[in-house]
Every structure is written in structure tokens, then in C-alpha cells.
Amino acid sequence: MTMPETLRPVTGREQVPASPEEILARAKAAAPLLRERSEEIERTRHLPKDVVELLRDTGVFRIGMPNEWGGPELTFAQQTEVIEALSYGDAAAGWCAMIGMDTWIYAGYLNEFVVKEMRANPDAITAGLIFPVGRADRVPGGYRVTGRWPFGSGVTHADWVVGGCVVHQDGEPEPGPGGAPMNWRLILARGEEFEKVDTWHTTGLAGSGSMDYQVTDLFVPEERSFDFTQPHRSGPFTAPDAFLSNVPGVPLGVARAALDHVRELAAGRVERATGMPWSDSYRVQTTIGQAEMELSAARYAVYGTLHDLWDRLRSGVEPTPDQQVSSALARVNAFRTARSIVSRLSDLVGTASIYRTSPLDRWLRDLHTMCQHILAQEQIVQSAGAHLLGGTPQAPFPLGLKG
């Protein structure tokens, strides 16, 4: 396939990005190219092949690969900056990048033989739902897996796919470790081994291709299964927070894009009734000032908690309850703040914002869809409060799960 001139890779694949700074620079350079393709990405409801390759060339899918495996090992904050930069170009591309980079986090729970196989492609993409909606029956050497999983963001272009399963033995569910009511295990298989079911007809994030995927009676070797209680390495990437750390980069990038867009519009607009330039309009000035204030506060909360989270995980210091929930609350706030900002910017622009030709229409729908994800729902806030008070959280962690 010949790649359009407007979407050539930022650099050749032979020039591997070796540093966080270079990966971030490539992500920023890719953003305007992604913006050019946003309408197509939404219309086709998945990332076109050349867009996927552009993302690979930025190095985003290797940002969680540790130094000991030859990767750049970006901190949580550095990862979020990369996702934020890509989402500034296109929300669906940023979302798929955020999901797809989990390859090297999953690898931390797998044995060396499987990791060696995975390391053959440092830019491999992984997709899949963690929740145990599939079934894995024990057989000699592994499992026979059957299931259908929803919300497979990026599954249309994934090299690896995971699926959460309840383990069964002799036809009955196994109890989990430590007296848990079920044995929740994740399986890992090649993307082409799953059938994709085109269910993704949504209000927003259409281009993420977050459709269902399924498999029937697939044999998965024992070594390609894992759970989050038994990491094979140590460090920040084996903490539950590791899957969630860079998620806020998507809403933050979209909100920043919307603000910049409206500020550019304001430079040439006048109030219809009075002829007053928008730059002198109290209404416009207040809306923009308020939005900038709220986005800045939300962004600093995200990055401040991510720096603290990384430092404590690196040092092995036991976190306080407040530290445990701080990044989760900052993450929820980033989603809600971004949606609120873009909604008010749409109100400011008025009827022009309701047309599909306006990026505000797409950004608002994308953020509305993002805010329905479990990571941004009320139960995360409730679970954080319960954790602080010693009560019972409704979410699996005071954090939620990505998928």
C-alpha cells in the first residue's frame, strides 16, 4: 500500500526512537497529520493501516518497554505527554495508542520464553478487555478458551489480544487464590486468532474500532496466561496503576485542541448584534479564561500525582490511602473537566458547532463517549472515598480497569 504524501512516517522505521524526548517530538509532529485524517478515521470506524503505521513510527507502542529489554522506559508522566500529543491530533488515534502500548506491561507478568517472542517486535500493539467475560477450561498444557469480549479498542489492528476469563476445571469454576470466589485469568493470543464482530456504532470515538471480538475452543498454552497477582518482574510497571497512568492524556489532549481551535476562531469573529470583536467581548473573554484555568488545574493535578506515583513505586515506599487514590481522582477529573470545557466552547461558538464540519462536534461526542468508560464513572469516586474511609469500594480497585 502506498502511503499518501500527507501521512508519511515522521522518520523511517530504521531510525528507532531511542529517548522519551524523541518519541514526544515525533508524537507532536504526527498530530497535524492525524488531524487531517480525523473525518476519515471517524467515518471508517477504525484506524486506517497507514495511520497505524504512523503511530508505530512515533514509538508510542514501546513507551512501556523497560530499559532492561532494550526499551525507552518512559515514566508515567512522560507516557501521558505522548498520549496527550497524539490526542491533540485525533482522539481515536490517541485512545488506540493508549490502549495499544500495554504490550510491555502485560509482558511483566509472562515468563521469559514468551517475553523473548514478544521482544521480536518492540512496536507490537495489544488490545483487549481485562474483565473475565470469557471461559478458560483447563486442559493438559494450557486452556481451551471460548468467549466474546466487548470494547476491543484497536482490536482491528492489534498484534496481540488479551481476554479476561474465568478458569474452569472439570466443568466447574475454580476458586481464586486467597479464597476469591473465582479464578480470574487473562489469556494472550495472536490478533488473527480472534474473530472481530462489528458492533461499534457509537456517538463518539468511532474511529477507535472498539468492537466485540470472539473465539471458540482456542487452545492457549499455560505460559500465555497470567493474572495480576504474580508479576515476573518488579518496578512501577507491575503496579495496578501502571495500566491507567497515561489514560488522562486523551481527554487533556482533546480539550487543549478545542481551546486552541476556539482561540483561533476568536481572532476573526465579531458579535453579530453589536459588531464587537470577540477579543473584546466580556462573554468570550470569561469563557476562554475560565476554560484555561480549569484545564490548567486538571492537567497539573494529573502530572503532579503521576510524578508522585512513579517516585513512590520506584522507591518501594508504601503509599498512604490518600496517595493511593490521588491519581485515580485526578484521572476522573481530567475526563469530566475536558467534557465540560468543550461543551461550553460549543455553546460559545453556537450553531456553527453542531455541523459535522466543525471539529467541536466530534470532540464533544468523543468526550461524551470517553466519560462513559468505567474509568470516568461515579463508582471510581465512590471507591476512592470508601478507600479513604475504610468502607467498601464498588470498583475492582479504587482505580478501575482499562479496556
TrEMBL record:
Keyword vocabulary terms for this entry: Oxidoreductase
Annotated signal peptide: none
Domain of life per record: Bacteria
Entry-linked InterPro entries: Acyl-CoA_dehydrogenase, Acyl-CoA_DH_C, Acyl-CoA_Oxase/DH_mid-dom_sf, AcylCo_DH-like_C, AcylCoA_DH/ox_N, AcylCoA_DH/ox_N_sf, AcylCoA_DH/oxidase_NM_dom_sf, Histone_H2A_CS
One Pfam match: Acyl-CoA_dh_2
Residue intervals of the Acyl-CoA dehydrogenase/oxidase N-terminal domain: 34-118
Domain Acyl-CoA dehydrogenase C-terminal: 251-377
Transmembrane spans: none
Record-stated family: Belongs to the HpaH/HsaA monooxygenase family.
Name assigned to this protein: Acyl-CoA dehydrogenase family protein
Source organism per UniProt: Microbispora bryophytorum subsp. camponoti
